[in-house]
Design brief:
- By secondary structure, this protein is α+β, with helices and mostly antiparallel strands.
- The protein has two domains: 160 residues, 2-Layer Sandwich (D-amino Acid Aminotransferase, Chain A, domain 1), CATH 3.30.470.10; 166 residues, D-amino Acid Aminotransferase, Chain A, domain 2 (Alpha-Beta Barrel).
- It is 23% helix and 30% strand.
- It is built from eight helices and 18 strands.
- Strands 1, 2, 3, 4, 5, 6, 7, 8 and 18 form a nine-stranded mixed sheet that branches. Strands 9, 10, 11, 12, 13, 14, 15, 16 and 17 form a nine-stranded mixed sheet that branches.
- The longest helix is centred in the first third of the chain and has 14 residues.
- It is globular.
- The model has no long low-confidence stretch (mean pLDDT 96).
- Bound molecules: 2-OXO-4-methylpentanoic acid.
- The site of 2-OXO-4-methylpentanoic acid (COI) has 7 residues, from loops.
- Keywords: Amino-acid biosynthesis, Aminotransferase, Branched-chain amino acid biosynthesis, Pyridoxal phosphate, Transferase.
- It comes from Pseudobacteroides cellulosolvens ATCC 35603 = DSM 2933.
- It is an enzyme of class 2 (transferase).
């Protein structure tokens, strides 16, 4: 038994930001959820407390060896007033997949969903309502032993913070320019690529910065061994529509099993569109473009939902996809997923969970 959640409310609530100019990850709500783990005791002391800096010993293990995981999901305020979470079980189950890879003890999925609902309820006035906005939820776990030897920590903190957000990319749903990365790699099979852990994001920064300097929003990651097979795009999963068929790289250990990726595949199947998970080479994309069968390309992720790819640059060979415009299918997937998320469309797939007062 983890115990009752203690609640300590803030005495100084913040002024809420302007909903039309949120950007992504700039603002944080008044409260956060925390619980601790101690070896031999398990997870304990769950509490909702005022949002505040954490005090840490400089030797705290996470600061040195990065033994940590995180998640990202969103809460929406429907027009009828309901508060909706999108597939929260998937995120919490993925916490335990990431935890296992990082030698972090598992969490109790159902307890963490209940705790999340309790936190959201306290912060419900922070859920933005303008089109394209939501309350981004960032659960994360850090290793907290003050110790410099390399081994799994014996203590951890599980924390959830909340951030009202708008679009992830300034481009919004407009197509982005993507640089095909042939030098740096994101992950290899046997590594940590399938876990949602800070190291994967730290290792991606250099390529992202170099691509930016060349005028590209993000990179397309190729496999770490042959630099031939497509893996992910930026921090997102990637899909290509070729000759009416939608193809996405198969999950073989180096790719994150995205929840928007899974939702996109389920939707496409429900619409009768052929979806295939398999290895796909960058050459195949260029060949499809050359013979006129590359219809659309897009990334999927919680933060941006759908991000169409308008241009690819692979070793200075540039191709424009769908005339640099948002594809019909990309647009339909974006509209359907966001409308299920925000309650505008009936959720026939059972993806949303209501947060009740
Ligand atoms: C997502 O697409 O949701 C991500 O993983 C991006 C996040 C790290 C901000």
């Amino acid at each position: 038994m983890i115990g009752q959640i203690k609640i300590e409310k803030t005495n100084s609530p913040k002024t809420k930001p302007d909903q039309s100019n949120l950007g992504f990850g700039n603002y944080f709500t008044d409260h956060m959820f925390i619980m601790d783990y101690t070896e031999g005791k398990g997870w304990h002391d769950p509490r909702i407390v005022p949002y505040a800096p954490l005090e840490m010993d400089p030797a705290t293990m996470v600061l040195h060896y990065g033994q940590a995981i995180f998640e990202g999901l969103k809460a929406y305020r429907a027009k009828d007033g309901r508060i909706l979470l999108f597939r929260p079980h998937k995120n919490m189950e993925r916490v335990n997949i990431s935890n296992d890879r990082l030698c972090i003890p598992p969490i109790d999925v159902d307890f963490c969903i209940e705790a999340l609902k309790e936190l959201i309820n306290i912060e419900k006035d922070w859920i933005p309502t303008e089109d394209g906005t939501s309350l981004y939820i960032r659960p994360f776990i850090i290793s907290t032993d003050p110790f410099l030897g390399v081994r799994p920590s014996k203590t951890y903190k599980y924390i959830v913070i909340l951030s009202p957000v708008g679009a992830y990319y300034p481009e919004g749903i407009n197509p982005v320019k993507i640089y095909v990365e042939s030098n740096y790699v994101r992950a290899v099979k046997g590594g940590i690529g399938y876990a949602k852990t800070p190291g994967n994001y730290a290792s991606s920064l250099k390529a992202q910065m170099e691509a930016k300097k060349k005028g590209y929003t993000q990179v397309l990651w190729l496999d770490g061994v042959e630099k031939k097979y497509i893996e992910e795009v930026g921090t997102m999963n990637v899909f290509f529509k070729i000759n009416g068929e939608v193809i996405t790289p198969a999950l073989e250990g180096s790719i994150l099993a995205g929840i928007t990726r899974d939702s996109t595949m389920e939707l496409l199947k429900s619409w009768g569109v052929k979806v295939t998970e398999r290895k796909i080479t960058i050459q195949e994309i260029y060949d499809a473009h050359a013979n006129g069968t590359l219809d659309e390309a897009f990334g999927t992720g919680t933060a941006a939902v759908i991000s169409p790819i308008g241009e690819l640059n692979w070793n200075d060979n540039k191709i424009t996809i769908n005339e640099g415009k948002i594809g019909e299918l990309s647009s339909k997937i974006y509209t359907t997923i966001t409308n299920i998320q925000n309650g505008d469309l009936e959720d026939t797939l059972g993806w949303t969970t209501e947060v009740k007062a």
